[in-house]
Amino acid sequence: MHVGRQLHVLFVDDNETIVSASIRMLENLGHSVSGYNESLSALRAFSEEPDEFDLAIVDHEMPDMTGLELGERFRRIRCGFTVMLYSGQVDSATVETCM
Hints:
alpha/beta, four-stranded parallel β-sheet
């Protein structure tokens, strides 16, 4: 990942409003964004073309699988892939797991 170049971001959050707003924001910054509100759909898209994405931004708390689990699946498919987790709520156990 290089600073200053356009990235293809895989954005995942179960809240459609957050996905839409985040897509607009990231596109306004010059990035290409594929947004998903279901972790399984995002995993399917990544599995089909893992080299198409530069970065994943994933909500930690989602149905089907957590963002941490989804990020681990991405990294099993493409070793070293960068995954950024975010959340509105983080407890100390989550912080310990992610560190």
